[in-house]
Amino acid sequence: MEIEKDNVIKLMGRLDSTNVSEIEEQLEEILDEKESLVIDLNELETLDISGIFMLFSFKHRAHKEYKTIEYLLNSSKVITGNIFGINMPSIV
């Protein structure tokens, strides 16, 4: 994870069951100090269903606290093969 600007966080590498709890904890600590975050997913190499669920629930929790989360994803290559056949709400 890399903090690019004040409210932009770049996730890199993997977001899957091996590290999803750690990443979520780090994001929550950052959000405690911010009103909004932009999370760039473009450098992720792997994103599995646990990572997708965490991103969805993280945005939902932030919304309940009147905070804003936006996700940047310019290419769907990172999620190809992970969500086909699953009807997921939009996280972008």
Automatic annotation (TrEMBL):
Q: Which residues form a coiled coil?
A: 20-47
In its keyword annotation, does this UniProt entry include Glycoprotein?
Answer: no
* Any Pfam family hit: STAS
State the UniProt keywords alphabetically: Coiled coil
Domain STAS intervals: 1-73
Looking up Gene3D superfamilies in the UniProt record yields:
STAS domain
Tell me if Transport is a UniProt keyword of this record: no
What's the name of the protein? Answer: STAS domain-containing protein
Q: Which organism is it from?
A: Christiangramia forsetii
